[in-house]
Design brief:
single chain; 276 residues; alpha/beta; Rossmann fold; six-stranded mixed beta sheet; four-stranded antiparallel beta sheet; binds adenosine-5'-diphosphate; binds magnesium ion
Length: 276
């Protein structure tokens, strides 16, 4: 299946977002398709989190349209978005360290949605469902649903959160910097899970500022700079160097050197402090 030939599940058309006088997003137009990973790239402050908050019902756009399956929709609350199958997984998996795997799997799930067959919490059944979901994503090392979420590695927690979203019928999976706090092995693990979600036909929106992680899973890339889509391209159309340069917002080494010289000239010859 070639992603670009299918119609988008979720689409933004000319979306703007302001907070009072501050314009954060400018005229964002983007499409996400089933079985495809859209990587949203951009430096700190570019507007990535604001953009995904619009897709997940946390913020309402100041102007512009959101469409699902070609129909205009409006998400007034995160619940509206989640009822339409949009799931967001945050950097730390958003799970509860002191809860068991089985219990955390069903937190916030309404009795009518999949929880139906059991009236009271059935620990064994919940554990079984949660462990099966995890194992179906290739996390075969975990076989005890009574284990506490807090004892899982960062990558395993992310995997649990993704498996949970998929189990409860997510169609669009939004991952906000899922690999940012992880080591190489753990990150590779999460990237495999992303590929598995894609294989199952979900549309995945993967937010990162790590170009290598984006290139490992992305079918489609959008680079945000100061709240606008500065580049929009498909896998294979740009090299790693080109993507890195785009993310730097067109700043060349010469620009950086002259900024550093300017700083030193006004700070007794001290170089600027380094930051992450
Ligand atoms: N609620 C808000 N009110 C005012 N400004 C905001 C608000 N949320 C975000 N911003 C501003 O919007 C810009 C983009 O922020 P954000 O979406 O968090 O970027 P990113 O996730 O790419 O780092 C930043 O300059 C930030 O200060
Ligand atoms: Mg952010």
């Amino acid at each position: 299946m070639t992603g670009s030939s299918t119609s988008p599940i979720l689409e933004l058309r000319n979306v703007n977002k302001s907070f009072g006088p501050i314009d954060v997003l400018h005229d964002i137009t983007l499409q996400v398709r089933a079985g495809e990973v859209l990587c949203l790239l951009g430096d700190n402050g570019a507007g990535k989190s604001t953009l995904i908050k619009i897709m997940s019902g946390v913020y309402i756009p100041t102007s512009g349209e959101i469409l699902m399956d070609g129909q205009a929709v409006r998400f007034d609350t995160p619940r509206d978005a989640s009822e339409k199958g949009i799931a967001t997984v945050h950097q730390f998996g958003g799970t509860f360290p002191l809860m068991s795997i089985g219990r955390s799997f069903f937190v916030g799930v309404e009795p009518t949605k999949g929880w139906g067959p059991f009236k009271v919490f059935d620990r064994k059944k919940a554990n079984h469902i949660a462990i099966n979901a995890l194992q179906s994503f290739g996390i075969t090392r975990i076989d005890d649903g009574d284990r506490l979420v807090g004892g899982l590695s960062g990558g395993e927690r992310q995997s649990l959160a993704i498996a949970r979203a998929v189990h409860f019928g997510a169609r669009v999976l939004i991952l906000d910097e899922p690999t940012a706090a992880l080591g190489v092995k753990q990150a590779a693990h999460v990237l495999r899970i992303v590929n598995e979600a894609k294989r199952r036909g979900l549309a995945v929106i993967f937010i990162t500022h790590q170009v290598m992680h984006a290139m490992a899973v992305g079918d489609h890339f959008a680079v945000l700079i100061r709240g606008a889509v500065a580049a929009d391209f498909r896998r294979g159309e740009k090299s790693r160097e080109q993507i890195t340069d785009l993310m730097a917002g067109g700043e060349t080494m010469a620009d950086l050197e002259s900024q550093i010289e300017g700083y030193m000239a006004t700070h007794d010859g001290h170089p600027p402090p380094t930051h992450t």
